[in-house]
Amino acid sequence: MNKNLIVVIGPTAIGKTSLSIALANHLDCEIVSADSRQFFKEMHIGTAVPSKEELAQAPHHFIQHKSITEPYSVGDFEKEALDTIDRLFQKNDFVILVGGSGLYVDAITKGLDTFPEVDPKIRKELHITYETKGIEHLQAQLKVLDPEYYAKVDKQNTHRVMRALEICISSGQPYSSFTTAIKKNRPFSIIKIGITADREVIYDRINQRVDLMVEQGLINEVKSLLPHKNLNALNTVGYKELFTHFDGKWELDFAISEIKKNTRRFAKRQLTWFRKDPEIKWFPYTGDVKEVVTYIKEKSTIK
């Protein structure tokens, strides 16, 4: 346990990338991304992938390493990221894990629950149902089969709704019955750093980021991905709204306003997820990185 995983988390657009790079430079270590939207090489502007300049400042892993056409689950990430972290610990006492995807952070820090195998036919049938009847039909089905999970799941996250239904239908039991919340022991110490700000500040930063994405070419990026719009990786904020625009259903200005609104909602859900974790030490987004370093040294197993 003389190795330390520094986890940098917080809502979108709060400054996790810049803090993680500053910490990596101070600790002379590498960064593992747990941002599930940044895994895919075809998605760049709309996922706020670190710039070339930022990537050059510290070694990063799990940034644009997959194609949107490749199946990639949180279970795949857990295994590959733990292997990478283990390898990085062989040359340094610190590794930084950074991201706003709570489930992916938990996969590394707590471990995933074990679920039964799913018949591929069920998965295929659910995809067909989604394409023909929409997410609302799947939401209603989940409400009947597992009202407990329905009450807390992000109902607009198609992947999670479908995953829960797969388990319900395959096993004949509620998805929530397989979520034990038993934390798995990891062979390293975990120090969690949260970055936050007043809600108005977070929302303002989100609005500014979306405007910058549009300036950087988000519209053309999404347009180039139109042939793949039904892929699960693209069913995410910043892309699905513009697909609706290209389908002729929304004006461009309205689609952009919806991106801002849905990103703000996403940030609210992120904070709700993270604030349930008492192990997180919160710092203001305007804080001095030296304060974070001091805290890490106090909590570190390396003295």
TrEMBL record:
Binding positions for ATP per the UniProt entry: 10-17
Q: Which molecular function GO terms apply here?
A: ATP binding; tRNA dimethylallyltransferase activity
- What are its cofactors? Mg(2+)
Q: Which Pfam families match?
A: IPPT (PF01715)
EC assignment: the record states 2.5.1.75
Question: Which Gene Ontology biological process is one annotated for this entry?
Answer: tRNA modification
Q: Which residues make up the binding site for substrate?
A: 12-17
Residue span of region Interaction with substrate tRNA: 35-38
Which reaction is the catalytic activity of this chain? adenosine(37) in tRNA + dimethylallyl diphosphate = N(6)-dimethylallyladenosine(37) in tRNA + diphosphate
Family of the protein in this entry:
Belongs to the IPP transferase family.
Which NCBIfam families does the annotation name?
miaA
| HAMAP family with a match to the protein in the record | IPP_trans
Give the protein's function. Answer: Catalyzes the transfer of a dimethylallyl group onto the adenine at position 37 in tRNAs that read codons beginning with uridine, leading to the formation of N6-(dimethylallyl)adenosine (i(6)A).
Describe its partners and assembly state: Monomer.
Q: What is this protein called?
A: tRNA dimethylallyltransferase
Which organism is this protein's natural source?
Aquimarina spongiae
Instruction: Give the encoding gene's name.
Output: miaA
